[in-house]
Design a protein that fits this description.
The complex is a heterodimer of chains A (261) and B (98). By secondary structure, chain A is mainly alpha-helical. Chain A has 2 domains: 32 residues; 228 residues, Cytochrome Bc1 Complex, Chain D, domain 2. Chain A is built from 10 helices and 7 strands. In chain A, the strands form 3 sheets. A 3-stranded mixed β-sheet of chain A has the order 6-5-7. A two-stranded antiparallel sheet of chain A has the order 1-2. In chain A, helix 3 crosses helix 5 and helix 6 crosses helix 10. With 98 residues, chain B is mainly beta. Chain B has one domain: Immunoglobulin-like (Sandwich), CATH 2.60.40. In chain B, a hairpin with a 2-residue loop joins strand 3 and strand 4. In chain B, 21% of the residues are buried. Classes of the chains: A mainly alpha (261), B mainly beta (98).
Chain lengths: 261, 98
């Protein structure tokens, strides 16, 4: 009897490690066959397509490296933008360009920020295209301007503040080692070791959704799972959480839009 | 309109490795309540000559990826991959072996 009990305990101890190695194998396989590039191709068309009341493309959009400069832009976001006097991440800045360059209203540009497998959204395609230009660049979000520091501090606060029906914070799930949801290990997002590889591969194609997902979606979906109202697209809240995460991941090499389970 | 395709063909150890991405819903009969929508035929041509004619089913995932290893080949060979779905829509892409 004792031997059987020992065996059972041992099996339980080994299971998570085994599951993790299998999960890593699966991640590798999906990454090799990732349709991410297809989203980048459509994103390129949308980037160059004249749209909105002004009938212009986004090709002059300033993502922080100058008008129309895509190389390395995503890896250097979020950052402070003088023209709007606030911190913006890639999606917030794209929205800003749609409104200022193309003359579209916020309502119109945000009619459908999150798509689905049958019809991905414009923002998803564009974010794939923009992020694809930062492959090989080190993550270096803005950190010098007071507003950037403020955004980081706000993001950090939001990470630890408990809220909503279930009294959850981001840290409830992402605050300590060894937590899992089903097969997925939950990364400790206050630690650079875990956050680096993650921010280095978002936005990403998500196999379980068969479509491309943005960082804004990722953050909103966490809030939804916490049973907390989802933040407004491009809001200070989302930019701050993104700033906190990207600053934690600082220095990691951006590997391009990734592939998630 | 059919979504984009993307292909890469490279020489490796005397073989040509082809990797091609396709955009397609690949919807099963179950998902569509009896009106499946999927790629049926795939054709691979080298310099205009068919080398693979394949039939696939609705069991293949959305936005599928295929790789083929072709014997031989030389830099600059023209590889063409095309598909035909069960609604008669087609798409193709071309690349030179690098």
């Amino acid at each position: 009897m004792r031997a059987i009990t020992c065996g059972a305990v041992l099996a339980f101890a080994v299971a998570p490690a085994f599951a993790q190695s299998q999960f890593e194998k699966y991640q590798k396989m999906t990454a090799e066959g990732s349709p991410v590039e297809l989203f980048e191709l459509v994103g390129e068309d949308l980037w160059k397509k004249p749209q909105g009341p002004n009938n212009v493309s986004l090709e002059k959009c300033d993502l922080g490296k100058g008008p129309g400069v895509l190389k390395g832009a995503h890896a250097a976001l979020p950052r402070y933008f003088k023209d709007v006097d606030q911190v913006m991440d890639t999606e917030s800045r794209l929205l800003h360009c749609m409104m200022t360059l193309q003359g579209r209203s916020r309502e119109e540009a945000l009619k459908r920020p999150f798509g689905n497998a049958d019809k991905p959204s414009e923002m998803e395609y564009l974010s794939a295209y923009v992020a694809g230009h930062s492959r090989g660049f080190k993550l270096s979000p803005g950190s010098a301007h007071p507003k950037e520091k403020e955004s980081f501090e706000l993001g950090k606060k939001l990470f630890y503040v408990r809220t909503g029906l279930w009294d959850f914070s981001c840290a409830s799930c992402h605050g300590e080692e060894g937590k899992r949801i089903r097969m997925s290990e939950l990364p400790v997002l206050s630690e650079p070791k875990a956050t680096g590889p993650l921010i280095a591969t978002w936005p990403a194609y998500r196999v379980s959704n068969s479509t491309f997902k943005t960082m804004q979606w990722r953050i909103n979906n966490c809030f939804r799972q916490m049973r907390t109202p989802e933040p407004v697209f491009g809001s200070e809240t989302v930019n701050a959480v993104n700033m906190f995460l990207t600053t934690t991941a600082k220095g990691a090499t951006y590997r391009g839009p990734g592939t998630k389970r | 309109m059919a979504g984009p395709m993307k292909m890469r063909a490279t020489l490796a150890g005397g073989n040509t490795d082809v990797r091609v991405l396709m955009t397609h819903p690949m919807a099963t009969a179950q998902q569509t309540k009896g009106a499946p929508y999927f790629i049926q035929n795939i054709t691979v041509k080298v310099n205009g000559k068919p080398v693979i004619e394949g039939e696939i089913s609705q069991a293949v995932s959305r936005n599928p990826v295929f790789s083929f290893r072709l014997k031989g080949g030389a830099k600059g060979d023209k590889i063409e991959v095309s598909w035909l779905d069960n609604k008669g829509e087609t798409n193709k892409t071309e690349t030179a072996v690098a």
